[in-house]
């Protein structure tokens, strides 16, 4: 969680500044999000962001098993 200047709390973006879409799987090889998830991130509630972070961990784990 990060705290904004106004005291509100939010979930930090999973972006690691390695922005490249895997053409075979349609997600970023840096943060594991799809283009839609990347573009919609700022609209998600903190609960939605946390749920997505859990799905990203599943994607990462599934990908590492197959490679």
Structural description of this entry:
There is one protein chain. The protein is an alpha+beta fold. Helix content is 40%, strand content 12%. The protein contains 2 helices and 4 strands; from the N terminus they run E-E-E-E-H-H. Strands 1-2 form a two-stranded antiparallel ribbon. Strands 3-4 form a two-stranded antiparallel sheet.
Task: Describe this structure in a few short sentences.
By secondary structure, the protein is of the alpha+beta class. The protein has helices spanning 35-40, 46-66, and strands at residues 2-3, 9-10, 21-22, 27-28.
Topology:
Blueprint: E1 2-3, E2 9-10, E3 21-22, E4 27-28, H1 35-40, H2 46-66
Antiparallel strand pairs: 1-2, 3-4
- Largest sheet at a glance? 2 strands, antiparallel
Query: What's the helix-strand series?
Result: EEEEHH
Number of DSSP-assigned strands? 4
Rounded mean pLDDT is 88
- Name the helicity range: 40-55%
Features of this protein?
single chain; 67 residues; alpha+beta; two-stranded antiparallel ribbon; 2 helices
């Amino acid at each position: 969680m990060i705290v904004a200047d106004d005291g509100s709390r939010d979930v930090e973006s999973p972006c690691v500044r390695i922005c490249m879409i895997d053409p075979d799987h349609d997600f970023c090889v840096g943060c594991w999000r799809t283009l839609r998830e990347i573009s919609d991130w700022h609209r998600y509630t903190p609960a939605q962001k946390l749920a997505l972070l859990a799905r990203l961990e599943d994607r990462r784990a599934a990908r590492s098993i197959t490679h």
